[in-house]
Amino acid sequence: MYRISLVTGDGIGPDLSEAAVAVLEAVADRCGVGFDVRRLPAGDAALRETGAALPEETLRQIRDSDACLKAPVGESAADVIVRLRRTLDLYANVRPAKSYPGTGALREDIDMVIVRENTEDLYTGEEFEVGGGAVALRIITERASRRIAVRAFEMARRRNMMKVTCVHKSNVMRVTDGLFSRVCGQVASEYPDIIYENMYVDACAMNLIRQPEQFDVILTTNLFGDILSDESSQVAGGLGMAPAANIGDDFALFEPVHGAAFDIAPRHIANPSSFILSVRMMLEWLASTRGDSSCAEAAVVLESALAGLVASGVGTRDIGGDLDTAGFAGAVSSKIRSGP
Ligand code: ATP
């Protein structure tokens, strides 16, 4: 029995959370894996009600769980996710962009993953006003660059194309990105079986539109990874289809790439695929870290049920279907229970 902490979030978060729970229950029935899901508050509503965006009790329950599922939170996102990433040292942000037929992706053969450094760069919030101006510290260390590079190369080894593209802007930020690209190059020499290339971030932004199928694993720093992963998810079918994982050495948290989408929240029409595919990533992570073949099977069953449905036109409105969030989650759950 795995203990799963579930941050239900704000905006579309609660709808997505119920969708994730429905699908988890279905894979549990189908594959014989047990999940004890604990719903936890964090975000804008928690801030209003308790005075803390990330209540201590929520943090304690997350620490106490085997893995965390986190739905999007609103304006207080930085106080929740940035703090969780730092507190739990979840240094790798892994964002797959894979096109599923039927979702309006730019091409049907896109299958890449962005591996984004999650703990430093401009996200440390070291900003100051100086005289008539302002300064932000961009912190890049050898240790953080090395461990994210190792993650990216290990991941590439398990994939078909076996290629890593290191994305930076070392021609302008010679010291910080110079260090990042140098360390990545050193790690690359330890993986001679993996194809390795360097690309400036502006060229990468262009190539993600021009030839998205050429990418396999993109290895990059925090801010560039944030921007490129919104772009890659749009290229591969939109934010509603985009999952993510924040992974450390012995804990991981899974969440959609997108935010709380308050504009569509009252209509209950959000696409839960982003969170359902985050559940899939969690199952794969449990499979590899616990050596649990039932979780590996559950991940495959979940993905094929979802892919089969969207390919036949079943889905939410953002991908051309006509179901609401609960309706689509129900369809995925039924398919998981009944499918081959
Ligand atoms: P943030 O700044 O936290 O990323 P945001 O409000 O700028 O949040 P998102 O919430 O990430 O942006 O999403 C942008 C828009 O994409 C939303 O306003 C919504 O219309 C659409 N969108 C996002 N997620 C989904 C989803 N799961 N299903 C359908 N549409 C979505």
The termini sit apart by 25 Å
CATH superfamily of the largest domain: Isopropylmalate Dehydrogenase
Q: Judging by the overall fold, what is the CATH architecture of the largest domain? A: 3-Layer(aba) Sandwich
In the CATH hierarchy, the third-tier topology of the largest domain is known as Isopropylmalate Dehydrogenase
The biggest beta sheet reads: 10 strands, mixed
- Reading the helices and strands in chain order gives EHEHHEHEEEEHEHEHEHEEHHH
Cα shape? globular
Helix-strand makeup class: alpha/beta
Based on DSSP secondary structure assignment, what is the total number of beta strands?
Answer: 12
In helices, the fraction of residues equals 40-55%
* Whole-angstrom Rg: 20 Å
**What ligands are attached or bound here?**
adenosine-5'-triphosphate
Adjacency order of strands in the biggest sheet: 2-1-3-12-11-4-5-10-8-9
Q: Please count the helical segments.
A: 11
CATH class (first level) name of the largest domain: Alpha Beta
Low-confidence stretches: none
Strand content of the residues, in percent?
15-25%
- Average pLDDT taken over every residue: 96
Total discrete domains:
2
